[in-house]
Amino acid sequence: MARTIFTTITPLPAGVTREVVLETLHDHLEMIDLNPTHTERHRIGPPPEATPEEYHCTWYQITDKISYLPGVKGSVSFKTCFHNLSNGMQNHVYAPMGLDIKEKWTLGGNLPGEPVMPAEIGIGAPVTGLYLREDIEIKCNFLVTRFVKKQLQDALATLVARLVVKTQLQEASFRNQMLQQQGYENSPQSPYFSPPLSPPLSGGLEMQFPRHSFKQQQQQRFSTQTAVSEMDGSQKSPGLASNHPEGIVELPS
């Protein structure tokens, strides 16, 4: 059996957050489904070959369609366990024909505004920004090693692409929530915006005429109304009342 050990460093695009990466690494089913050759997976209990440490991990049985050699196709089932870390996840695959794969995914690096921590030398880690580190140990027939490494590389590329899309979706959801809290529906930029009704016209006459003219007209109107009211049938003219004791006017014949 050949034993192969290698480390892969993958810088993450700007905008990807720690929360998104760790949430994805801790989602075991999502990590399993990174490989399109897997056709079935379900939870199982720890198998007899589990080590004392791995006995308490989360175990799955996975069915995979295989094509290791030209013209050789079929399916195979194997067991794998997952163990979450504070900064990543460990995975151990027990497959037939002595195939044994150990993976450890960890999140490293720093975000803008965070202190730059010393990075391990010799692995090609970026000085700034977040990155995924994948440490892999493979034990298998040397004829299968290349095939397994190709599958792992494809799964890594799929993972990074999903992290980018998941980050974009979360950012869009967050922006929508902020806009709703700020009353975006009532802003002119919203497609649902309708301008408020025009306020009632106040002081319209004052807008058409000078202020002093309007007051003078009001005073004149009030004086006229008062004079008309006083000359109503219930009131007698002072001049006519002085010509007759009973206030009756006699017209000449």
Automatic annotation (TrEMBL):
Residues 221-237 have a biased composition (Polar residues). InterPro entries: DUF7053 (IPR055481). Residues 2-168 form the DUF7053 domain. Residues 184-253 are annotated as: Disordered. PANTHER family: NACHT AND WD40 DOMAIN PROTEIN. This is DUF7053 domain-containing protein. The lineage of its organism: Eukaryota, Fungi, Dikarya, Ascomycota, Pezizomycotina.
